[in-house]
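User: hey, got a sec? need Farnesyl pyrophosphate synthase folded
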Amino acid sequence: MNRERFVQTFGTLRRLLSNCLTSTMNETDAQYCTSRINKLFAHTIEGGKHERALLLIGAYSALQPASSEAQMMRAVRLGWTIEMMQSHFLIADDIVDGGRTRRGRPCWHTLPDIGLGAVNDALLLECGIDAIVADEFATDHRFGALTLALQQTKQQTVMGQTLDNATRGLADCTAVRYGEIVSRKTSHYTFFAPVQLALILADRLDAFDPTRRLCNDLGYYFQAQDDYLDCFGDPAVTGKVGTDIEEGKCTWATFTTAALLSNDKAKRAEFESNFGITDATAAQRAKQMMRDLNIPELYRNFQSAQYSKLCQQIDAFPVLALRPVFRTAVDSLHNRQK
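Assistant: Yep! Here you go:
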């Protein structure tokens, strides 16, 4: 299933969710909540790349090539739960980080009639995930495994975000801390969770461990790209104004910078004086110091080496049917600009 066909199922999913969440309300209140849901979905879910959902659907199709239309629609609905989870986390993340733009649009919480009501909207999306899974799978033998997988995904992501928010200065920007953040905040819900859900749906629980290992490395590659683009990408292309330097985040770019400055106290002190400060001039100075340390060149070398490593891992992956799925995923990431 391609992106266009997946997007065509959006209206059906939105109506299903509205019915699930408002069925016991009076007509006036149900209409208000349905309108809110429609606006929320249109702004925070529509227009995305939907890569997580398409990974889930692609993995399921590869594992079950003879699946019926009805079986594929179950995978599609699970795919939408991953997209809802993505929007749920992005809304919360943008509030915490004070984000202004997302996907080339104003962040949801910045809209004049939304504000901190966005917190409740993020919770609404979380409730929607549970409602869709219950509606589709409540009597299915996979219900428990699917519910547990989604719960673990939320838990891992929240703990990764907790570590991300705990970064306080350059001393916290280490390879170890970064690996912990990425494995939880990015790798699990961006790569492992979609494939895990497909494996559960296809009754292939035996493949969890090798999938987790490969997805962890895919997530590291993906997050390092995001980190680099936050610092050095073109906002007109990425659709987002990067703020990692101003926020003092532990990223691939900043932990690499910290390591390079470990033996130069003067330059390290200068970088620290411009890091984690909401000041455009300070951020530009920090980025120039990173350029002087050849961070862009180091990133290009890292990206090339990581791509080769991932291709080798995919060629040796034990579930043959999933090799093309993972290869498509890594190829779509290689040299990306947004």
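Quick note: Strands lie at 101-102, 105-106. Let me know if you need anything else on Farnesyl pyrophosphate synthase.
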